[in-house]
Design a protein that fits this description.
This protein is of the alpha+beta class and 208 residues long. The chain has a single domain (47-201), classed as Pseudouridine synthase (2-Layer Sandwich), CATH 3.30.2350.10. It has six helices and 14 strands. The strands form four sheets. Strands 3, 5, 8, 11, 12, 13 and 14 form a seven-stranded mixed sheet that branches. A hairpin with a 2-residue loop joins strand 11 and strand 12 (153-160). The two termini are 29 Å apart.
């Protein structure tokens, strides 16, 4: 998704735009273009792969698929998860489940998203209790890696195509594990070759 606006500096208007919005609860890298020539290049960033680090909470679900929604406990314990894997190593079994999400696939956009259908933002409809039919988008998860696991927290790194909803991925992982899950924390660490460690903090920006 892209957004463009104008800011005024004295009598001069400067065009500013960004490519790839972040969910309100998420942190991380955002590419911002300043000036007409740069905002024309925004669309070129849309096709770049993105890297996310997500903390997924097992044993509960959320109507928004993240920590901002209504949380419902599924009351699945670590022991019950262990029994589902027949006493096998849970971490290894979780890694096997994660591998099933790699590659090209169809993903249904969540109702709580900025996607527009018939001119309406889905989150506006969702807040009114309205659910509409959505068409799945083709996405690609280039890689998905388990970083840390201590029930009920599961930390993963995902390299994915544009249009991928990590919140939906978190929910799908929980469904496949049989525990339920939602995205507790989300951070975008890279867009193409641009990495968050080399980004400028908004608080560090100074006007001339």
């Amino acid at each position: 998704m892209r957004a463009r606006l104008r800011v005024e500096t004295g009598n001069k208007k400067i065009k500013v735009g960004h490519a790839g919005t972040l969910d309100p609860f998420a942190t991380g890298l955002l590419i911002v273009a300043v000036g007409r020539e740069n905002t024309k290049k925004i669309d070129g960033f849309k096709a770049l792969p993105k890297v996310y680090i997500a903390t997924i909470k097992l044993g509960a679900t959320s109507d928004t698929f993240d920590c901002t929604g209504v949380i419902t406990q599924t009351k699945i314990s670590a022991e019950q998860l262990d029994s589902r894997f027949h006493g096998n190593d849970n971490q290894k079994e979780i890694e096997n489940v994660l591998k099933t999400f790699a590659g090209k696939q169809l993903q249904l956009p969540p109702m709580f998203s900025a996607k527009k259908i018939d001119g309406h933002r889905l989150y506006d409809l969702a807040r009114k209790g309205i659910t509409v039919e959505r068409q799945p988008n083709e996405i690609t998860i280039f890689s998905i890696k388990l970083l840390e696991y201590t029930y009920p927290d599961l930390s993963i790194e995902v390299v994915c195509s544009t249009g991928t909803y990590i919140r939906t991925l978190a929910s799908d992982i929980g469904e496949k594990l049989g525990t339920g899950a939602y995205c507790q924390e989300l951070r975008r660490t890279a867009i193409g070759t641009y990495i968050v460690d080399k980004a400028i903090r908004l608080s560090d920006l100074k006007s001339n």
